């Protein structure tokens, strides 16, 4: 069952990333069409901006997230021995280098992973997670985070953030072109294509954010399935998710920019929506108990 789910989530993620790239190129074309009636140069321009911005994000993101969340690194097995040995065992099972381990001093139970590749992976857990959950539940949560590293989810999220930022930049440029040109020099522009281009400039940033969050939600299902592959214990992960979700205290160090990285929503938003960073906990539990 979970192999089927892993395969389905990988297909969905690839589809969403391809759609992201199409939107980036489309909005670039729209910008130059609004300005000069030319769409090819805009696609090339957008591709260059998106590529440069993505490379910049990937090369500068390591360690930044840990500092933002005031996480303290554990450097030996004598400090938090159970946590150290559990991560070590899971990384061996996942066939990846052992991630660096961090602790966040916060009573709310939660965890997250970061790192753009398994070689630079890192796992952070709150003290609340270690104090409130039993060993099997902690192992399930850690397996979920190790799975994120093994599945290159963080790289995917970083690329998604970069593409959303590139789309926002292009949309802003397009609006300035339209405002300052005042709709002049429209002789070589088809009216219908002009309307479509303007709608794309206006709506693309919103669509991109929704897609970014869809990727974030999608990778949570994949990480759940991958964690079960590592532990063979879906019930422990399901009960861990229920206990973390039932805790209504938010993680103080979490922010909207890092919320999507956490195992469960650290901000404790009450209502699920298109702009949720995580899929509904009930659906995740249901899928886990079907495995």
Quickly list its features.
291 residues, mainly alpha, 6% strand, elongated
Notes on the structure:
It is found in: Cell membrane. One of its GO terms (molecular function) is metallopeptidase activity. InterPro entries: HtpX_protease (IPR050083), Pept_M48_protease_HtpX (IPR022919), Peptidase_M48 (IPR001915). The active site is at residue 145. Zn(2+) binds at residues 144, 148, 220. The protein has 291 residues and is mainly alpha-helical. Helix content is 65%, strand content 6%. The protein has helices at 2-36, 40-60, 64-68, 81-94, 127-132, 135-150, 153-181, 191-231, 234-246, 281-290; strands at residues 72-74, 100-104, 111-114, 122-126. A four-stranded mixed sheet has the order 1-2-4-3. Strand 3 (111-114) and strand 4 form a beta hairpin. The termini are close together. The mean pLDDT is 82.
Layout of secondary structure:
Layout: H1 2-36, H2 40-60, H3 64-68, E1 72-74, H4 81-94, E2 100-104, E3 111-114, E4 122-126, H5 127-132, H6 135-150, H7 153-181, H8 191-231, H9 234-246, H10 281-290
Parallel strand pairs: 2-4
Antiparallel strand pairs: 1-2, 3-4
What is the gist of this entry?
It is found in: Cell membrane. The chain is built from 10 helices and 4 strands. It is mainly α and 291 residues long.
């Amino acid at each position: 069952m979970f192999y089927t789910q892993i395969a389905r989530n990988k297909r969905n993620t690839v589809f969403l990333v391809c759609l992201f790239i199409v939107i980036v190129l489309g909005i670039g074309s729209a910008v130059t069409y609004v300005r000069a009636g030319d769409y090819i140069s805009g696609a090339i321009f957008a591709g260059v901006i998106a590529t440069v911005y993505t490379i910049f994000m990937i090369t500068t993101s390591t360690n930044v997230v840990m500092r933002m969340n005031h996480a303290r690194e554990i450097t030996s097995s004598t400090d938090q021995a159970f946590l150290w040995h559990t991560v070590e065992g899971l990384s061996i099972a996942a066939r990846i280098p052992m991630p660096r381990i961090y602790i966040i001093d916060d009573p709310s139970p939660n965890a997250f992973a970061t790192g753009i590749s398994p070689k630079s992976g890192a796992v952070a857990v709150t003290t609340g997670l270690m104090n409130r959950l039993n060993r099997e539940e902690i192992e399930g949560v850690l397996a979920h985070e190790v799975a994120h590293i093994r599945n290159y989810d963080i790289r995917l999220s970083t690329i998604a953030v970069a593409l959303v930022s590139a789309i926002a930049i292009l949309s802003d440029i397009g609006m300035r072109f339209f405002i300052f040109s005042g709709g002049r020099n429209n002789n070589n522009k088809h009216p219908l294509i002009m309307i479509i281009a303007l709608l794309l400039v206006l709506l693309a940033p919103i669509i991109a954010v929704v897609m970014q969050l869809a990727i974030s939600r999608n990778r949570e299902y994949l990480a759940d399935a991958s964690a079960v592959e590592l532990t063979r214990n879906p019930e422990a992960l399901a009960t861990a998710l229920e206990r973390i979700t039932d805790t209504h205290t938010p993680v103080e160090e979490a922010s909207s920019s890092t919320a999507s990285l956490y195992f469960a929503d650290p901000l404790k938003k009450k209502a699920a929506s298109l702009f949720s960073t995580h899929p509904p906990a009930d659906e995740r539990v249901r899928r886990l108990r079907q495995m």
